[in-house]
Amino acid sequence: MNEPILKQIIDKYDTPSYVYDIEILKNRISYIRKHLPSRAKICYAIKANTFIIKDIEREVDRFEVCSPGEYEICKKQNVDESKILISGINKSKEEIDHVIETSNVRFFSIESMSQFEIFKNSSKKVELLLRLTSGNQFGINKEEIEEIITNRDNYSNIKLKGIQYFSGTQKTSIKVLRKELEKLDSFFKELKQKYNYEAEEFEFGTGFPINYFQGRDFDENEFFKEFSEIVDNLEYGGNIIFEIGRSIVASCGTYITKVIDIKTNKNQKYAIVDGGINHLVYYGQSMAMKVPYLEIHPSRENKEDERWNICGSLCTINDILVKQLPEKIELNDIIVFKNTGAYCSTEGISLFLSRDLPNVIKIDEDKSIKLIREKNSTFQFNG
Ligand SMILES: Cc1ncc(COP(=O)(O)O)c(C=O)c1O
After folding, report:
1. Measured between alpha carbons, how far apart are the two ends of the chain, in Å?
2. I want to staple 314 with a disulfide (CB 3.0 to 4.6 A). Which of 126, 227, 234, 319 is the partner?
3. Is 351's pLDDT higher than 90?
4. Which of 136, 204, 246, 346 to mutate to test the pocket of ligand 1 (most atoms within 8 A of CB)?
5. Pocket of ligand 1 (CB under 6 A)
6. Which CATH number fits the domain that encloses residue 305?
């Protein structure tokens, strides 16, 4: 982050803060589009970051919305209803009825046979994606999908739009992805041959990988090139929509935290920051074994031969953000953690020790800085 912008943010709003740069976000979506096959569409899984959905409404083709809370956020922000897919394993009849009665959202995924039961007698026309399980609590079995497809003519208000599949995130192995996609391709072929069913849509969420840690990078251009070749070679000829969270939004985010104390205990240097693991979540990070991309401000020319452990403000020895960082750290330094646009704000153990939730700040494309949620306390309750 450039110094003047950082200075403005610190002077005005202090730390800890999440900062989302909308220009970076939009450029990132253009990059992903450019590197995927031309028939590919993009669905943003809003669980990754619910603060920027309105900014990218025109840039993405769909939003995957997984809970009543996420749905309310979309409603509040007036998100285009035709772009919403209601997904997720916990959908009650009341919630679905509420959506159908109070909006024009008619697009849902099916995660269990009991969810399908809710739609069987729907009074309004709905479109469904059947989620194929990859062998966990999500989705339904192949045989159950076949059963639904066999009986599809009995459900006059249901359009079976296609298949959804998500088997995990951060796979960098093209070999693994090829195997997965080829298996799905065979499944589409089987559905055509056995039931004369052609899925109009295939929503695939592999959760594209991103580079979080220093020294552990993969070649993203090469990854997308090889991945796109696999997609281009599929026999399946319908629409393909990629369900992506992290890869869209991680790079636009920085998390800013301040060094509020320094000490040396038994020859180990510790910098205590006003944030911590309650705000900062990196996929694949465990006990700070890896070093995320970060900057120290003010930057120093002469890097000293020092090693610092950066720790948060929680009362647990697990609250380590970085171990043995080879930088010089001083009191009041600002540490800017990069690639924090995804899941930090939604996955952090934010209630731990009743510390404040960070500010949420947006840098708009014209470089104006907006506070979109003020740092607020977690200890207020009506008790
Ligand atoms: C069904 C589904 N789709 C998409 C995603 C997005 O994954 P990622 O944020 O890694 O891209 C997730 C993440 O948990 C998911 O559960």
Report:
1. 41
2. 319
3. no
4. 246
5. 45, 48, 64, 166, 169, 205, 207, 243-247, 342
6. 2.40.37.10
How confident is the model at residue 282, as a pLDDT?
A: 93
Does residue 170 sit in the same domain as residue 309? no
Which of 60, 166, 203 to mutate to test ligand 1, by most ligand atoms within 8 A of the CB atom? 166
| Closest atom, ligand 1, to C-alpha of 208 | 11
> CA-to-CA distance for 251 and 241, rounded, in angstroms?
21
Element (H, E) at 270: strand 268-273
Q: Counting Cβ atoms within 10 Å, is residue 92 exposed (0-12), middle (13-18) or buried (19+)?
A: exposed
Q: Which two tokens stand for residue 57?
A: 């409404």
CA of 353 to the centre of ligand 1 (A): 29
Q: How far is the CA of 138 from the centre of ligand 1 (A)?
A: 12
Residues 163-194 have pLDDT tens digits of 999 999 999 999 999 999 999 999 999 999 99
* Ligand 1 atom with minimal separation from the 43 CA: 4
Task: Give pLDDT, residue 122.
Answer: 87
State in Å: Cα 41 to ligand 1 middle: 15
- Nearest atom within ligand 1 for CA of residue 245: 9
Q: Please give the pLDDT value at position 108.
A: 98
- Residue 263's domain comprises 3-17+251-373
Same domain, yes or no: 255 and 149: no
Among 218, 250, 282, the domain boundary falls at 250
- From CA 88, how far away is CA 246, in angstroms rounded? 17
Regarding whether 180 and 156 lie in a shared domain, the answer is: yes
Within a domain: residue 381? Answer: no
Point out the ligand 1 atom lying closest to the alpha carbon of residue 243.
4
Q: Are residues 192 and 302 in the same domain?
A: no
Domain at 50, CATH number: 3.20.20.10
CA of 301 to the centre of ligand 1 (A): 40
| Shortest-distance atom of ligand 1 to CA 342 | 9
C-alpha to C-alpha distance for 379 and 190, rounded to whole angstroms = 55
Ligand 1, atom 15: nearest CA belongs to which residue? Answer: 166
- Say whether both 207 and 68 belong to one domain: yes
Same domain for 229 and 130: yes
The CA-atom distances, in angstroms, between 206 and each of 15, 171, 174, 245, 321 are 34, 7, 11, 10, 27
Asked if residue 257 and residue 246 are part of one domain, the reply reads no
Please indicate, yes or no, whether residues 67 and 169 belong to a single structural domain of this protein: yes
Q: How many CB atoms lie under 10 A from the CB of residue 95?
A: 16
Look at 169-173, 327-331, 345-349 and tell me which has the smallest mean pLDDT.
345-349
